[in-house]
Design goal:
With 529 residues, the protein is an all-beta fold. 2% of the residues lie in helices and 50% in strands. The chain has 3 helices and 29 strands. The strands form 8 sheets. It has a 15-stranded antiparallel β-sheet, with no helix packed on it. A two-stranded antiparallel ribbon has the order 1-2. Strand 10 and strand 11 form a beta hairpin. The longest helix has 5 residues.
Length: 529
Amino acid sequence: MDAYIATGRNTNGDLLLNKFVNGNADLGFSKSSGGNRRIYMQANFNYDKTIGSHAISGLLLYNQQDYQSADAADAISSLPFRLQGLVGRVSYNYKSKYFFEFNAGYNGSENFAKGHRFGFFPAYALGWIISQEPFFKDNDVIQYLKLRGSYGTKGNDQIGGRRFAYLTTVGGGNGGYTFGVDVNNVFSGRGEDQWGADLTWEKEIESNIGIEMRFLRGFYVQADIFHRNRSGIFMQRNSLPDIMGLQNNPWGNIGEFENKGIDANMEYNKKLGKLNLGLKANVTYVQNKLINDDAPDYKYTYQNRRGKRYQQPFGLIAEGLFTSQDEINNSPVQTFGPVRVGDIKYKDVNEDGKIDAFDEVAIGNPGTPQLVYGFGVSLSFKGFDFSAFLQGAGTMSFMLGGVGFYPFAEGGIRGNININVLNRWTPENPNQDVIFPRLSFGTNANNFRPSTWWQRDAGYLRLKTVEIGYTIPKEVTQKFKINTFRVYVSGLNLLTWSKFNFWDPELGDGRGAVYPIQKNINMGVNINF
């Protein structure tokens, strides 16, 4: 396909085009083939026995697998991928009132050296149905009440990176020697490329306390409070100085991360005469924190990533737009490039008289929501039915920017201009609440950088589904040998409420350059004979 660039217009107003890409009239053609082989074996033994008020069950399971790719591009990739494991479970309950369960996995992975390949991962769980106790009988307020808790360890061997990372590899990039009268005999040096490490399983310790309750003859609530600590995360060391002379920093089980939060849902079902009412809601709130990434303290510790949320954005604090040259002259020097009236003014966080990378701080929230929730209603009356569900997310921020967002940032060949470009600073419109600061042709190192100027609250509430229907009475449909006949209209993603209006916030952070979520309206019939 040919490509052209517009260079102006002629006297008739037609575009003047210059061709800068010569296309190919023929379609491209290629072919490929591949395959793989997987051998999987599993054997298990089950036990289940009830003796009086005691019920006990158990499971013992063995599995192993061998996978080999026919598309391997090198010798290491051509070797089989192998896993082996033994799983056991014992469950016990007394009078279906007191519950205990023990699970354990003993798993082996090829990713680790001998002596580190197998890991033991136990888990325990307790449950107590309080409403089964004699003192809880005939309770008019709470019909069912169960408390439960669990504590256990999980392992992960999919650590990413190269295979057999416990082995040191030899590679180039270590200088070399030059000989000869004409200085033309060059011999490259060899040395350690990737350092091996005593790797083992990543481990996650999870504890959970939960409650289940039915009360007031219609309500049901389930809630869990959880805490997860993941340690031994496989990552590259960040604390080694360059003076060690390493080609690549070694890897190790050094990362640590924490997750904690609450997950709950509620339902209410009630029959009020001929009206059937159903309500439901759910909420998940999670806090996470990076505990260790083996990084030394930054020069200014407020820039440390430790103690912050996963993917916490960092940037400058915008204080508005420069309104005059005098304001520029009397402000801390902004070191990113030329600054003019209408450009973004930043805060001097460390008060050293200049604005640079050391003034970047944690701003806003990551693009992953900390809060996810939903609620809905269902109604039916005689032959009519109605249902709707709304979902939302909050405590998340998006950073505007990237290719295609900043007007003219890609010069004259690539670029994108949308309607928001009209909401910009100009000498005739020197407002401080515009979307875009002073525009320029090409990149602007001062303005086009992460800051609170471009960060937006991306929380939203969406009418996810809604449906209304009518079922014709059976005394009518049975005359035509039809058991049920229902007509309905349904909608999907019909409405969204959000402060963020640049693209659909459910698409996530970035530039919105993905296929948009569609609104759907359907009409249909359900017929059962």
